[in-house]
Automatic annotation (TrEMBL):
Gene3D superfamilies: Winged helix-like DNA-binding domain superfamily/Winged helix DNA-binding domain
Biased composition (Low complexity): 120-137
Cited InterPro entries: HTH_MarR-typ, MarR/SlyA-like, WH-like_DNA-bd_sf, WH_DNA-bd_sf
Organism: Pseudonocardia yunnanensis
Protein name: MarR family winged helix-turn-helix transcriptional regulator
Top-level taxon: Bacteria
C-alpha cells in the first residue's frame, strides 16, 4: 500500500462524515486525476466502496470497507514507528511546535482530532492515527 492510499483510508476511517472524491482530494491536497486513480485502485482491492449519493445522483460517496479498516488498523504500529523515527531528531517542544504549524498550514482545528475509530481523541484518551496526527496536534 502506498502512503497516499493509506492517507485516503485513514481519512475515511477517522472522520465520521460522507466523503466524495473531491472532498478527499481537498483534505489531502490531491489533484482530481490522482485522487480518482487512487480511489479506483482502493476500490479494485475492495478497501473502499463507492455508492451514488441519494441526494445528488451525479456524486459518488466513498466509504471504507471492513477489509480497509482491517488493513489500516494492521499498519498503525508501523506508521507510528515511522512517525517516531521522523520526529526523533526534534525535542518534545520542537515536535509540538511542528505539529502546531502543520495543523495551521492545512487549516485543521484542534477540535478535529479523532481516534482511529472516529471518536474524539480527547475524550477517549487515545491518539489520532499517525497519518493525520502530525497535522492535528
Amino acid at each position: 500500500m502506498t502512503a497516499p492510499q493509506f492517507a485516503i483510508l485513514d481519512v475515511l476511517m477517522t472522520y465520521d462524515e460522507d466523503f466524495d472524491q473531491s472532498m478527499i482530494g481537498q483534505r489531502l491536497s490531491l489533484d482530481s486525476s490522482t485522487g480518482s486513480y487512487l480511489i479506483k485502485r482502493l476500490e479494485r482491492d475492495k478497501l473502499v466502496a463507492t455508492v451514488v449519493d441519494p441526494d445528488n445522483r451525479r456524486r459518488k460517496l466513498i466509504t471504507i470497507t471492513e477489509k480497509g479498516l482491517t488493513v489500516v488498523r494492521g499498519t498503525m504500529a508501523d506508521a507510528r514507528a515511522a512517525e517516531d523515527l521522523i520526529l526523533a531528531r526534534l525535542t518534545p517542544s520542537e515536535q509540538t511546535q511542528l505539529k502546531r504549524l502543520l495543523k495551521r498550514l492545512v487549516g485543521i482545528d484542534a477540535d478535529d482530532e479523532m481516534t482511529c475509530d472516529g471518536r474524539p481523541a480527547a475524550s477517549s484518551g487515545e491518539s489520532a492515527s499517525p497519518a493525520t496526527t502530525s497535522i492535528r496536534q
